[in-house]
Design brief:
By secondary structure, the protein is α+β, with helices and mostly antiparallel strands. Helix content is about 45%, strand content about 10%. A four-stranded antiparallel sheet has the order 1-2-4-3. Strand 5 (about 235-240) and strand 6 (about 245-250) form a beta hairpin.
Length: about 325
Amino acid sequence: MTVQAAADLAALDARINAILPPQYQGCYQSVSPNSMGSAALKYGADGRVTWDDIWTSFCDLALAGGPPHRGTLLEPASAEEVAAEPVKYQQVVEEIGRGLWLVIKLPVLPRQAPGWLGLVCQNEGMAAWLLRAVTAENVAARQQRNILLLPAGPHFRLAKEIKNVITAAAKSCHHWMSHMSAEEQATAAAVFLQQANGSELLQPTSAEFIRARPEEYRAAVSQVVAGIHAATGWPVTASLNSGWVNVQCPTVEAAVWLLRAVIVENVLARREENQLCLPVNPSGETEPGTARLVRVFAHAGRLWQLQTGALRP
């Protein structure tokens, strides 16, 4: 390993440690990627779920290498789906908001946009960290300053999608609010809010962009697929979820390592088993998002191969 590669690995390790709660710092290999199982719903005398009486502990944080809460991505309903069933949608939004308040004790804004409700965070740094953490749990999220947007839809079921949203947010908030000091929170937020190269967060392009400019989006997907495959030799495919591609990593451990490596480079990412899911977005302030993603992932993949002694497939 060259001196430069060793320095790059040390710098990457420092950034990863900076975003994690203390119990995860420097002990990545001991974090279990296996789920503890799903907690059963409990009901009060009024027949409603007592969301604040369900969890006594949580699985390891997916951002730190633990198991994502969901196996696949939970996305918001479309504006058309919301408009078609407004009563059901309102009931779902109210129940998610009720659950979030009972567990997290943060205000909820129910009408941010069709398919989204807003969790009012303590500051912009908290929202930025939660955005990465909740997405890593395979629950879609967006950020507007100190507001974390969470998905909703009229088809969301109480014990499934509604519970998924509340659990992912509760698990992430628990680690941020209960396991990180104010100084540690500020250090973690700075990794995302004060990027040295000034790069904005790379996240999936919008559904509106894909509908309006399908050929440009398909070209962006092709560029990412070809670029990452050429750099690593690993299979890359377009995801069933628009705005994402899936990189087939050699192992779950490789996917976990690479997840953290790209997140600290301000690239939103999540994991489905040993598939690393990366965002496709052709826009960018300093360079096209597609080129930036290929560059970041190629560098991370090279560092992974160096630190494990792995050979290119």
